[in-house]
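During the reporting period the student researcher (J.K.) took over the structure-prediction task from the postdoctoral fellow and processed the backlog of single-chain submissions. One of the processed entries is reproduced below for the supervisory committee.
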Amino acid sequence: MSQSPLHRVCKLILSIYGLKQAGRNWNIELDTAFKSFGFIQLIADQCVYVRRDPVSGSPTIVAVHVDDMTLCAQTDTELSQLKGELASKFKVMDLGELTQILGMEVQRNNSDGSIRLSQVSYISHMLESAGMSNCNPIATPIDPNIKLMPLTDGDPCIGNAKFRCDYLSGLGKLMYPAVTTCPDLAYAIQYLSQFSI
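J.K. obtained the following structure tokens:
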């Protein structure tokens, strides 16, 4: 007696994007591939892999963010070798020299060997969404002498869910640049966060 197709169950051989275990399976596959290429995973940051050239001792570094990778090497030969190794295991797309990663713009100055990170577009978008795109810049994010007070019962903002949501959302949006490219915002954010309840 044959069963109808409605009573059959499929066993998945591969992970499907979006399932709970898919991210872990991808991480295991990527970790295995990098270790087979001779990379060592850093203990301090497990998304970073390092390999040293046996002859010159120069490092090749890969920083992984889900399925995006930033490749760093001292020579074009080492970089090309790594790209070839990755292409042998995975379908890869080479986007060229790094100009943006995780909402940060990357500007390289080859003459002095410096790298500059900024979040101009992220902050501009954040100011625009708050209706502050025409605000004037200042040198200090918050006056250190200012004393803020909690709202009192008579204040119209008490119980205003939209005000509270906007306030918390603004603080949350400011936290990312504070920990990446604008550490001068950290004091202001921690001070304002005291009034978030």
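The committee noted the following: The two ends are 65 Å apart (CA to CA).
J.K. will present the remaining backlog at the next meeting.
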